[in-house]
């Protein structure tokens, strides 16, 4: 291990350099405060690696994303979502027997406690399904209180993982049913994960539901593309909450909340709403697109081109490339002619040729086309981020598990206080 040297207040301090398996380098400053009294100030943690991890590799300059070493392009093409979930959580692609056991474990847990069904009746019909999903996920801990034991053994952890993957899908689908005022549909364990999810969302007790294999395959791909993305806001949140030894349900529920925001997973909903506004405002005409591009460049407008830009990708987001192709295919297969797709393509073209976006290395991210794909599949806008959450679940679990197994300490950063210096209390009548 090499060292880097820094001169602080005239004193030379050595910091070990840590090199990851893909040659990324970090300066290990764990002794900084003890040896110098200084801390680092890094808003948004833009320069801080919060952990070492062997789950996902991401190279933003070259647009590379790999889960446990496997390129995302190969996984999206060849694997199933539960196979990828197993890979992320347990580190290796499963053998057939391991996969069968994992799938049957998940399938065994798809039902949720009947009492939880009553919770849905308490939510207003238009409750956002992300809020419902987060609170119901946390509520699972009251039905499986053994998960609250920080010294959980491996078997109980595995069971909690299976429960989470299975039950969040049922909760997500039922939160959608609640929002449209339809009766919930119980899971069908003969179906695979993606088909079952679509069944629980779209089947009705009054008619037969025909499963469209192309939609199932597109959903499988979307879930895989979202399955992990190293230390993004929601994954880091899951780690932070998990680091206090709160249960896995609590940690994942917090992750769902973090994902909800429009700068993170909520961007897929925001993109479609933005495209709709542009459409209503004058459609895909050059004049209209140029007007909106001007607005996105203007900081005072308070509007960003949603679905563009990424903290890590500064070249292209490999997930966006795959999703754009899938969106084209699904729309063609299902004979969907969505005018918003045209707007999205014109807007993308205009932005990619505009200095503002070129200079700042702003490219379409995963959320730019995913909303349009969900729309083509018949999934309503409110549910887009919920679908993202179901996809990201294995990543949250894998990160939580890695952190717990490594025995990482509670996350508790420092701050630099900039408030008032000590002053004496002023009685109410003298203020
Ligand atoms: N439209 C217009 N300007 C932008 C955009 C955008 N979408 N994104 C960044 N910029 C500008 C920003 O104003 C800043 O300009 P300047 O240097 O002149 O001040 C510069 O580009 C750098 O932006 P930043 O906000 O400092 O970059 P960041 O790494 O903190 O933020 C981001 C990354 C994804 C939050 C941001 O690009 C953004 O808000 N994008 C739109 C929302 C979005 O699509 N989010 C989904 C992200 S991918 C999926 C996920 O994470 O869940």
Q: How would you describe the oligomerization state of the chains in this entry?
A: single chain
Instruction: Report mean pLDDT, rounded to a whole number.
Output: 94
Small ligands present: carboxymethyl coenzyme *A
Name the shape in a single word.
globular
What fraction, in percent, of the residue positions are helical? 40-55%
List the total number of helices: 18
Q: How is the main sheet built?
A: 3 strands, antiparallel
Low-confidence stretches: none
Order of helices and strands: EEEHEEEHHHHHHHHHHHHHHHHH
Number of strands: 6
Radius of gyration over all CA atoms, rounded: 23 Å
Q: Estimate the strand proportion.
A: 5-15%
Could you give the order of strands across the largest sheet? 1-2-3
Query: Which structural class matches the secondary elements?
Result: mainly alpha
């Amino acid at each position: 291990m090499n060292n880097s040297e820094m001169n602080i207040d005239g004193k030379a301090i050595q910091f070990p350099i840590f090199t990851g398996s893909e040659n990324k380098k970090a300066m290990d400053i764990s002794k900084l405060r003890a040896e110098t009294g200084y801390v680092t100030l890094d808003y948004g943690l833009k320069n801080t690696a919060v952990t070492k991890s062997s789950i996902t590799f991401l190279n933003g300059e070259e647009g590379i994303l790999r889960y446990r070493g496997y390129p995302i392009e190969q996984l999206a093409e060849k694997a199933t979502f539960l196979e990828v979930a197993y890979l992320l959580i347990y580190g290796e692609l499963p053998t057939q027997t391991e996969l069968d056991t994992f799938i049957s474990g998940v399938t065994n847990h798809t039902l949720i406690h009947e009492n939880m069904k009553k919770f849905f009746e308490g939510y207003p019909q238009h409750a956002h399904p992300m809020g419902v999903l987060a609170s119901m996920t946390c509520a699972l801990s009251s039905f499986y209180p053994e998960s609250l034991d920080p010294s959980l053994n491996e078997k109980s952890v595995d069971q909690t993982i299976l429960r989470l993957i299975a039950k969040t899908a049922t909760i997500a689908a039922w939160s959608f049913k609640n929002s449209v005022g339809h009766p919930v549909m119980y899971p069908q364990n003969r179906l695979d994960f993606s088909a079952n999810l679509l069944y629980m969302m779209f089947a009705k007790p009054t008619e037969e539901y025909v499963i469209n294999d192309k939609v199932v395959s597109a959903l499988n791909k979307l879930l895989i593309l979202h399955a992990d993305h190293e230390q993004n806001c929601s994954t880091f949140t899951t780690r932070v909450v998990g680091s206090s030894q709160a249960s896995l349900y609590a940690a994942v529920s917090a992750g769902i909340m973090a994902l909800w925001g429009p700068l993170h997973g909520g961007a897929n909903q925001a993109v479609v709403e933005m495209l709709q506004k542009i459409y209503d405002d004058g459609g895909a005409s050059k004049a209209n697109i140029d007007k909106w591009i001007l607005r996105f460049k203007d900081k005072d407008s308070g509007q960003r081109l949603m679905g563009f830009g990424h903290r890590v990708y500064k070249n292209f987001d490999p997930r966006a490339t795959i999703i754009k192709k899938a969106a084209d295919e699904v729309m063609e297969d299902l004979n969907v002619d969505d005018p918003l797709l045209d707007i999205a393509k014109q807007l993308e073209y205009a932005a990619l040729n505009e200095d503002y976006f070129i200079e700042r290395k702003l490219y379409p991210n995963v959320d730019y086309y995913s909303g349009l794909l969900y729309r083509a599949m018949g999934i309503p806008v409110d549910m887009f981020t919920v679908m993202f959450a179901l996809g990201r679940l294995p990543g949250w679990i894998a990160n939580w598990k890695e952190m717990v197994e490594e025995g990482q300490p509670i996350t508790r950063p420092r701050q630099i206080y900039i408030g008032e210096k000590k002053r004496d209390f002023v009685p109410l009548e003298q203020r």
